[in-house]
Design brief:
The protein has 618 residues and is of the alpha/beta class. It contains 18 helices and 19 strands. Strands 1, 2, 5, 6, 7, 8 and 15 form a 7-stranded mixed beta sheet that branches. Strands 14-9-18-19 form a 4-stranded antiparallel beta sheet. The relative contact order is 0.16. The structure holds flavin-adenine dinucleotide.
Length: 618
């Protein structure tokens, strides 16, 4: 079938119009007045990404104007929460700029809550400020729309284009419109990947009738990782997946409850179970258990151990706080502003938190670089603070020239959240403009042949289906294709059983990981034969392919790190202890685009903050 191709040439191409993508698009225009800037979004930019539904708090705000926190404090906080392993240059760089991004949100009309006594933003916790955030995403989308030459909605980017004169330089991206079926080619001088994290790579707790209900956005399908991995960009800390403690079945967040409502958890007998696991946890991780605040993974660890020991269910004690009518309102509004589903679950299960303490659960694992873990691309830091191993010319540029990242895409810099992701998008865009202005993107060659080859590859699942369905004599199962949903469930089962999912309480080891890699290889082979009956299913097919590539990378990293650095996120049963002597380092991978094989290496962790003071003191 003749298929329409839509061709664009631009200077800066932003892939994904979520928090980081809108920040990047906005900032690119500020520094690159004459540049052609395009943002491509898989959904509709007004309501896309993890913030689509709204948020109730901005989780990263320093408050430097009032002396509340300094960027160094945030680096210490993230370092502590990640058991020592973060890129401090990236974290510091984000933290020193994040307040200015939040001030723009305020100017643009985001309703911020104020402390009536001080007039400052109302704090939920040390880093969080409270907002009426239902309109958060449309507000940042408007800034991007005013800045871009063009926003393309409903286009999924499936591959990056590469320069044919320099095999390590990006040349744009291709994808398809999932409504019209048009093929889209974007030749670009730089590409900023801001395509969110990866949900649904591990089997979720909600299956069958509840399928699709997850904590992280179900449409976050790992494109942020698969696109760079496929062209040989180095990735970091991909083993550092996240498991969340959330309200059961609706995945309602617990932050406002702990921090603002001062609710607390207890086991079925009404005991503080965290204390019970102190000694045993200390045997695994040593003094890290004495850090304040207790790292998130270690709190998860106590939860998981308590449930395994028969102390569940674990409850959030809401009955006390909800006696205060103001706190009761805040508790409900918290969900109405960002997780309506939790309120619906409680209503359907007859749970009024004023009279019943709701149950909590630990989620299946997710992969992302903007929340409380560090998975993502290995990028250059800023020139003024990054040590040589962390710096190669342009802030947030990956190891592929001209390819930048922000938000969930970027590894090593956890706790950015919505505001930090937007900020990182701005930083990446500023550097991308500089890259173009310094003529690093001259004479890129992307031939028509390269684009035509991708066109065949992208639409192949439609052909697989058209041919394969004729072989079906009864029912829906074809001998020649697998459907995206079948492939997804197979992927989730492999990751769940072999790479540390919920079925085995997040446990894995060398043997299971190797088996998992073998099964993932076979799945990759079969994905050549995935069949798509329409354009929506074509999107599902490509989401699956991106999830699978991301999963391979996660599994390789998990195999490489021979320790249990973050008990509560996953366990290496064959190396149950944290091992600072051998593994106080970052892990890096690179997949050879020609062979598909991964190679692994270690990279040093530099404790930049406090090091200067320590040296001066000694
Ligand atoms: C349930 C939940 C609660 C949260 N609570 C808070 C909170 O209270 N406060 C806070 O500050 N932060 C919170 N966060 C974190 C915050 O939402 C993220 O840190 C932030 O959205 C990450 O920004 P991003 O741009 O990397 O990803 P996203 O904002 O998710 O954007 C990614 C975009 O890429 C698009 N995309 C994906 N693949 C492709 C493709 N192949 N082609 C084109 N487009 C693509 C997606 O559609 C999406 O629009 C929460 C997140 C979740 C999921």
């Amino acid at each position: 079938m003749a298929r329409k191709s839509v061709l664009e040439n631009c200077d800066i191409l932003v892939v994904g119009g979520g928090m980081a993508g809108t920040g990047a698009t906005f900032e690119a225009r500020h520094w690159g007045r004459d540049l052609k800037i395009i943002c491509v979004e898989k959904a509709n930019i007004d309501r896309s990404g993890a913030v689509a539904q709204g948020l109730y708090a901005i989780n990263c705000y320093m408050g430097m104007q009032w002396g509340e926190n300094q960027p160094e404090d945030h680096v210490r906080y993230a370092r502590n929460d990640l058991m020592g392993l973060v890129r401090e240059d990236l974290g510091y760089d984000m933290a020193r700029h994040v307040d200015s991004a939040v001030h723009m949100f305020d100017e643009w009309g985001l309703p911020m809550m104020r402390n009536k006594e001080t007039g400052r933003y109302l704090r939920e916790g040390k880093w969080q400020i409270m907002i009426h955030g239902e309109s958060y995403k449309p507000i940042v989308a408007e800034a991007a729309k005013k800045s871009a030459d063009k926003i393309y909605n409903r286009i999924m980017i499936t591959h990056l284009l590469m320069d044919e004169t320099n095999e390590n330089r990006v040349g744009g991206a291709v994808g398809f419109n999932m409504r019209t079926g048009d093929y889209h080619v974007f030749r670009a001088k730089t590409v900023i990947v801001a395509a969110g994290g990866a949900s649904h790579i591990f089997k979720p707790r909600a299956v069958g009738e509840g399928m699709g209900r997850t904590w992280y956005a179900p449409w976050s399908n790992g494109s942020a990782y698969a696109l760079p991995i496929a062209v040989g960009a180095k990735m970091t800390q991909m083993e550092n997946r996240i498991v969340l403690c959330r309200f059961k079945d609706g995945y309602g967040p617990v932050g406002a409850y702990f921090l603002h409502l001062k609710t607390y958890t207890q086991n079925a007998n009404g005991e503080n179970y965290e204390k019970k696991w102190y000694e045993k946890t200390k045997e695994l991780v040593g003094e890290y258990i004495d850090h304040h605040p207790t790292p998130t993974c270690l709190r998860n660890h106590a939860f998981i151990q308590e449930v395994m020991a028969g102390g569940g269910p674990i409850h959030m004690v809401t009955k006390e706080a909800f006696q205060d009518p103001h706190l009761e309102t805040v508790g409900w509004e918290n969900f109405l502003g960002m997780t309506v589903g939790q309120a619906v679950v409680w209503a359907s299960q007859n749970i009024d938190p004023k009279y019943t303490n709701p149950e909590l659960t630990t989620s299946e694992p997710y992969v992302m670089g903007s929340h409380a873990t560090c998975s993502g691309a290995w990028v250059s830091g800023p020139e003024d603070i990054s040590p040589p191993e962390y710096f190669w010319g342009y802030n947030r540029m990956m190891t592929v020239e001209g390819l930048f990242g922000a938000g969930d895409t970027v590894g090593g810099s956890a706790h950015k959240f919505s505001s930090g992701s937007f900020t990182e998008g701005r930083l990446a865009a500023k550097a991308a403009v500089k890259y173009i202005q310094e003529e690093k993107a001259n004479d890129i060659k992307v031939s028509d042949k390269q684009c035509e080859d991708f066109k065949k590859i992208i639409f192949k699942p439609l052909d697989n289906y058209t041919v394969g369905r004729n072989e079906i004599t009864g029912g829906t199962v074809s001998p020649s294709y697998i459907l995206p949903i079948q492939g997804l469930q197979r992927l989730q089962k492999i990751m769940d059983e072999y790479v540390g999912g919920i079925t085995y309480n997040y446990m894995t080891n060398e043997n299971t990981l190797k088996k998992g890699l073998e099964l993932l290889d076979w799945l990759q082979e079969d994905l050549e034969n995935v069949g798509a009956e329409d354009y929506h299913q074509l999107m599902r097919a490509w989401e699956l392919k991106h999830r699978t590539l991301t999963s391979q990378c996660v599994t390789e990293h998990t195999l490489f790190r021979q320790e249990t650095r973050w008990p509560g996120y996953y366990y290496r049963g064959d190396y149950m202890k944290l091992d600072d002597e051998n593994w106080h380092c970052l892990t890096l991978s690179r997949r050879d685009p020609k062979t598909g094989k991964f190679t692994m290496e270690k990279a040093p962790v530099y404790h930049i903050v406090d090091e200067k003071e320590k040296k001066e003191a000694s």
